[in-house]
Design goal:
The structure holds two protein chains of two kinds. Chain A is α+β, with helices and mostly antiparallel strands. In chain A, strand 5 and strand 6 form a beta hairpin. In chain A, helix 2 packs across helix 4. The longest helix of chain A is centred in the C-terminal third of the chain and has 15 residues. The radius of gyration of chain B is 13 Å and the shape is globular. Chain B has five helices and five strands; from the N terminus they run E-H-E-H-E-H-E-H-E-H. By secondary structure, chain B is of the alpha/beta class. In chain B, strand 3, helix 3 and strand 4 form a beta-alpha-beta unit. The chains are: A alpha+beta, B alpha/beta. Chains A and B meet through loops of A and helix 1 and helix 5 of B.
Chain lengths: 175, 126
């Protein structure tokens, strides 16, 4: 997990960015923070928000299943959907998030390099794995922006749970 | 709202029930029928607001069930949704005119089913 960085927010106030690296997760209950992950390719960002207690959390996982590398999963559980998503929820519970109130959004799962990705379909498998883990735990995804072949950067506002997806210099989508 | 699921697969009924429990819809009760005849019997005895029915079922198919419901003004207030593996245009044409609000094709993701339920609850005001 990476420390907070300051930046000027679009509405003029100062927001602090909490950066989520690849195979990492961040949970925050500080309203002036925005959780950010950059350049999601086939990786998937799982965004959580509890509107009652205003707790936001984001996981940036790389692969669907931890069984392909058990040692790595032990050292870095957030790298895989099946170990990272439970860890994301468990960490968020400590901040007061409750599962029944949690709004879950998915971003990423693109196929950036067609020659490689078409064979492995990592992006597609990642998005599907996330939904399967969530479903097994009685959680449905509220909205998603997945697939395609563009890299995405995601901003999750702790203040209101707003998720903004950036796919180009000026391309912003709110989900 | 009281929901009736008509499907000959108990697994499919369980899956739909689970999605109903996770969707943001006001549900009082979820009833189950294994075919169209059982569904009709339940509808005769209980007040139901939403019917989720399969098409291919033994004893009485979903089409026959929908025909009987469409022919009887007592069921005017019942919202009907078809959930079927048969998404062909001929099948869809067959249910057109039978007061079906929406046709959902199997396999579906739980999220799609949730969206349909929430949309039905909003538009049908139930």
């Amino acid at each position: 997990m990476v420390g907070a960085q300051s930046a000027i927010g679009e509405i003029g106030g100062e927001v602090r960015r909490r950066i989520v690296g690849i195979g990492e997760l961040v949970v925050s209950d500080l309203a002036d923070e925005v959780i950010v992950t950059h350049a999601l390719g086939s990786c998937v960002a799982v965004c959580l928000f509890d509107p009652k207690v205003k707790v936001a959390a984001m996981l940036h996982f790389m692969l669907p299943e931890s069984r392909i590398n058990v040692d790595r999963a032990r050292q870095q559980p957030a790298a895989f959907a099946d170990t990272g998503i439970p860890l994301l929820f468990q960490t968020a519970y400590r901040y007061g998030l409750e599962k029944r109130r949690a709004i879950v959004k998915l971003v990423g799962g693109a196929e950036i390099t067609p020659a490689i990705d078409s064979a492995f379909r990592t992006g597609q498998r990642n998005a599907l794995a996330a939904k399967q883990v969530l479903w097994r735990n009685g959680i449905l995804v509220k909205t998603e922006d997945t697939g395609g072949n563009l890299a995405r950067t995601v901003h999750l506002s702790v203040q209101d749970g707003r998720v903004r997806v950036f796919t180009g210099r000026n391309e912003v989508k709110e989900i | 709202m009281r929901i009736l699921i008509a499907d000959d697969s108990s697994m499919m009924r369980a899956l739909i029930k689970r999605v109903v429990s996770l969707a943001d819809v006001p549900v009082e009760d979820v009833l189950e029928a294994g075919n169209g005849a059982e569904a009709l019997a339940i509808l005769e005895s209980r007040e139901v607001q939403l019917l989720l029915t399969d098409i291919n079922m033994p004893v009485m198919t979903g089409i026959e069930l929908l025909r009987q419901l469409a022919a009887d003004p007592r069921w005017r207030g019942l919202t009907r949704v078809v959930i079927s593996t048969d998404g062909s245009s001929s099948r869809r044409d067959e249910v057109r005119g039978l007061d079906v609000l929406c046709y959902l094709e199997k396999p579906f993701s739980p999220e799609v089913m949730r969206d349909v339920l929430e949309e039905v609850a909003r538009t049908a005001r139930i």
